[in-house]
């Protein structure tokens, strides 16, 4: 079956009036150039200030803060080590008790 030609002349490039398109483009450019539109909406100094503030925040976030020091000073490392050792001992006792119980069940 032969392909039907596109019935919609709006999308057919051969039916485009180049002269009319050029006229529309020129008229659009006369109203407000695109680069001026965006430049007039942007406050360059405000953007620079925001960038500087962001850079300062990034630097302070990577530096040790008093909050980190507060938590470190409240933690007793030796107490934590004792708790870990006790937990390990409890696990060993529990596993050896289970092994002894299972020996008699076979």
Walk me through what this model shows.
There is one protein chain. The chain is mainly alpha-helical and 106 residues long. Helices cover 73% and strands 0% of the residues. It has five helices and no strands.
Topology:
Blueprint: H1 18-31, H2 34-41, H3 44-62, H4 66-74, H5 77-103
Question: What would the keywords be for this entry?
Answer:
mainly alpha; elongated
Structural class estimated from helices and strands:
mainly alpha
Element string (H = helix, E = strand): HHHHH
Low-confidence regions: none
Number of strands: 0
Question: Quaternary arrangement of the chains shown?
Answer: single chain
What's the total helix number? 5
Task: Describe the largest sheet.
Answer: none
The shape is: elongated
Which bin fits the share of residues in helices?
A: over 70%
* Cα separation of the termini: 80 Å
What do the pLDDT scores average to? 75
Q: Name the beta content range.
A: under 5%
């Amino acid at each position: 079956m032969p392909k039907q030609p596109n019935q919609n002349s709006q999308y057919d490039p051969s039916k485009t009036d180049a002269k009319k398109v050029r006229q529309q483009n020129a008229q659009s450019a006369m109203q407000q150039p695109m680069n001026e539109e965006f430049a007039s909406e942007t406050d360059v100094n405000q953007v620079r200030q925001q960038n500087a503030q962001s850079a300062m925040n990034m630097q302070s976030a990577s530096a040790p803060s008093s909050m980190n020091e507060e938590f470190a000073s409240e933690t007793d490392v030796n107490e934590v080590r004792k708790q870990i050792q006790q937990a390990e001992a409890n696990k060993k006792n529990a596993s050896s008790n289970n092994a002894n119980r299972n020996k008699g069940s076979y």
